[in-house]
Amino acid sequence: MNICVFLSAADLDERYTRPAREFAELLGKAGHTLVWGGSDAGLMKVVADGVQEAGGRLLGVSVEFLANKARPGADEMVIAADLAERKKLLLDKADAVVIMVGGTGTLDEATEILELKKHGRTDKPVVLLNTAGFYDGLEQQFRRMEEEGFLPRPLSELMFFAKEPVGALAHLEETLSGR
Prior knowledge:
Blueprint: E1 2-6, H1 14-29, E2 33-36, H2 42-53, E3 57-63, E4 76-80, H3 83-92, E5 96-99, H4 104-118, E6 126-129, H5 136-147, H6 155-158, E7 160-162, H7 165-177
Parallel strand pairs: 1-2, 1-5, 2-3, 3-4, 5-6, 6-7
């Protein structure tokens, strides 16, 4: 299974790196492929290291203006012309999506996949891994959107909220095995 992970290239503290390493180890040990932004910095590096060390494959999708930061030694590295092409390639190459701690780029990627799901353009499972409550406010906002009629589909059809890495991967494996 190819699992796309949206996350930050920023250096972060143990509240975020520990669960990222745990999720990466679970992915690698299960023989899954990490599809990610291709960076060899910050949380992206933590996850790529963990997947590779646990025996998983790495499929990176970088972008021309960040190609100098692409991870050497990935099993496959694709260089997109721009961010729009990068997002498309990430989603095309993935069977499922996990949203981890990140900044505006991660939020952009997350909302794009949700828009695609909302309009029936993809049925890929999406998990928001809410490490250390990082996305509590976003989850609350999504629930308000649902309650007030701003989502045409139930939120549970758009994404699954997980608090721990093991729950995130279990949901994906269960969802994808039922297809």
